[in-house]
Amino acid sequence: MNGPAIKRSSGLLAVMAALMMSSACNASPRTVSASDPSSPLRLERTIELPGVAGRVDHLAIDPAHRQVFVAEYGNGTVDAVDLQSGKVVGRITGLHEPQGVAALGDGQLVVACGDGSVHFYTLADRRETAVLKLGDDADNVRVDSRNGHVVVGYGAGALAVIDPATHRLLSTVKLAGHPEGFRLAGGRTLINVPDRGSIVAADIDTGVVTATWPTGMRNLNFPLAIAADGRWFALAYRLPAALQVRSVEGAVVSTRPGCGDADDLFIDGDRFLLVCGAGHVDVSSTTNADGQIARVTTAPGARTGLFVPELRSLIVAVPARGGAAAALWVLTAR
Fold first, then answer.
1. Other CB atoms closer than 10 Å to residue 114's CB: what's the count?
2. Among 275, 264, 300, 325, which Cα is nearest to 87's?
3. What is the β-pairing status of strands 168-174 and 182-185?
4. What are phi and psi of 13, to 5 degrees?
């Protein structure tokens, strides 16, 4: 490597180190357990997931029957968990790296897998009805509330729009890299593309990318959430760890301390709920970027979750560690 290149590389590392130190110094989190009376999240119950090994990925809820579906990536399974009884009531097996999952209003369950397959099941008895092959790395799943279409991020860069009635691919949105966290807002979608260091806005109906915003010195942008009024959104970076708010036009509004290995982010009224694999959920204000972070301890590796506003519950997936079984922690927002 020549001299100027070395200097540029050293400068980049120095800036990144400064950013990381700044995040660490400014965070000043107030760490509490979920059993602490002052905690913004209270642990209501723990539901064991027997025989589940490895990483646990995303969750979905069937609100009509109060069942949560858990994509168990390392186990090749999806568990159906009854929230009322606190028990696993069914299991889908033989899947290759299940990642994304969604319960549909028409009585279907969708599971997206690492081999690019998208599986459809009946919610009632988990009977497989169709399989669609997208290519590889089928990941996050969202449902278009306007028409019930299923949207799946996959491959080296695309979103697939699927008709759940016919199980046919309707259209695709081409992207420059693999989509991680994305959210729908009517016909618009906002997408994190970390391997390209960008956030993308696209029209889901026309399949056209309408804007691309670089993430700059921040990297590994995975989770994303859109405000209820649609005027701003938030995303979390893993390196340097940060939680950032942007306007819907892409302008940075604020950047505050975050946590590494964040994989899920939710907005609960005027609070952010950031699920962190280091073993905690960070709760912070949506309006005060300088406000104190309440860091509610969970367990190492618990990096995914599901916020259910109707139940005022954040459900966090805890992998099996040190002899303890994998589990769901049901936390009530106070």
1. 18
2. 325
3. unpaired
4. -65, -35
Question: What is the pairing mode between strands 188-193 and 182-185?
Answer: antiparallel
Q: Can you give the pTM of this predicted structure?
A: 0.90
Residue 9: strand, helix, or coil: helix
3-state secondary structure string, the chain?
CCHHHHHHHHHHHHHHHHHHHHHHHHHCCEEECCCCCCCCEEEEEEEEECCCCCCCCCEEEECCCCEEEEEECCCCEEEEEECCCCEEEEEECCCCCEEEEEECCCCEEEEEECCCEEEEEECCCCCEEEEEECCCCCCCEEECCCCCCEEEEECCCEEEEEECCCCEEEEEEECCCCCCCEEEECCEEEEEEHHHCEEEEEECCCCEEEEEEECCCCEEEEEEEECCCCCEEEEEEEECEEEEEEECCCCEEEEEECCCCEEEEEEECCEEEEEECCCEEEEEECCCCCCCCEEEECCCCCCEEEEEHHHCEEEEEECCECCECEEEEEEEEC
Q: Which of 259, 268, 279, 271 is nearest to 313 (CA)?
A: 268
Burial class (CB within 10 angstroms; exposed 0-12, middle 13-18, buried 19+) of 302? buried
Q: What is the distance between the alpha carbons of residues 290 and 199, in angstroms, rounded to a whole number?
A: 24
**DSSP run (H or E) holding 180:** none
pLDDT tens readout for residues 234-289:
999 999 999 999 999 999 999 999 998 999 999 999 999 999 999 999 999 999 99
1 pLDDT higher than 50: no
